[in-house]
Amino acid sequence: MRFSVFTAALPQWTPQQAVEQLAAQGWDGVEWRVVDQQDAPTPGFWAGNRCTWPLATLEEDVPRIRELTVGAGLAFSGIGGYALCDEHADVDRLLAATAALGAERVRVRTPALGAAPYPELFAHARRCFADIAGRAARHGVKVLVELHHQTVVSSSSAALRLLEGVDPDAVGVIHDLGNLVIEGGEDIRAGLEMLGPYLAHVHVKNCAWRPAETEVDGTVRWEHAWAELPTGQADVAGYLRHLTELGYDGWVTVEDFSTDRPLAERTAANLSYLRAARAGVPA
Q1: pLDDT tens, per residue, the chain with 283 residues
Q2: Nearest to 177 by CA among 89, 250, 255, 103
Q3: What are phi and psi of 176, to 5 degrees?
Q4: pTM: predicted TM-score of the whole model, two decimal places
Q5: What phi-psi label fits residue 44: left (phi over 0), alpha (psi between -120 and 50 degrees) or beta?
Q6: Residue 209 β-bridge partners
């Protein structure tokens, strides 16, 4: 089991600063965010993120991405792409760049809920990933489907239905513990077990629900908020135990969107916590 950080969670750092900090703290790898994003006056997770490579210039940036990563002694845990499964040209660009980098794995997004009835969206996504699997195999890379709230694949069960019959050497699942707090929650161990050979990657963050407002009739409205790894509703230490017991020895990538601590302190604390949890001792 190796630990990396998804750079969506590092908005204040440039790629150079990110690899220097992560290497100095002892992380094993990095998962680069690749997307054409909006600008923002202050760097944020989703806009103005300084640790994001633009899709528009991905091909010309490949040598620099490789130089920074390998030069810092870090490995690629994967590429965090944002292309939708039916954006064929962008998916092909991500596949080619992932192969050129030797990064092995790249995320491709599934449709969000609401654009059409769920059965139509799901059937469309299933056709797309069946097609993408062949293209990924030709590049020698694996496409990743993330368990994500408000998409057609929020649970292990849904992911298994999406990919059933598709080559697990070409397409796999990102099991995301924090996202499952929001939607798609099943028994965690059962979810991992049912994915079987499709369990290809792991994202770790934490989350908690809290009351947001009370309406005049007494109805309480709830909202979720990102939390530090030890403090949210998900049992991160227990999660690592399940993974170990089930023989998972792949990447565990942190995407911590909590903001209570400064970034360098937050990333260092996350690595210490994960190492202690893996070893079965208090952090």
Answers
A1: 999 999 999 999 999 999 999 999 999 999 999 999 999 999 999 999 999 999 999 999 999 999 999 999 999 999 999 999 999 999 999 999 999 999 999 999 999 999 999 999 999 999 999 999 999 999 999 999 999 999 999 999 999 999 999 999 999 999 999 999 999 989 999 999 999 999 999 999 999 999 999 999 999 999 999 999 999 999 999 999 999 999 999 999 999 999 999 999 999 999 999 999 998 855 4
A2: 255
A3: -120, 105
A4: 0.95
A5: beta
A6: 224
Cβ contact 108:139 at 8 Å: no
Angle, vertex CA 213, rays to CA 211 and CA 216, nearest 5: 130
Which of 261, 187, 195, 193 has the alpha carbon at shortest distance from 231?
A: 261
Q: Please enumerate in sequence order all residues whose Cβ is within 8 A of that of 144, keeping only pairs 6 or more positions apart, or say none.
A: 78, 105, 106, 107, 108, 171, 172, 173, 174, 200, 201
Tokens matching residue 196: 């079987």
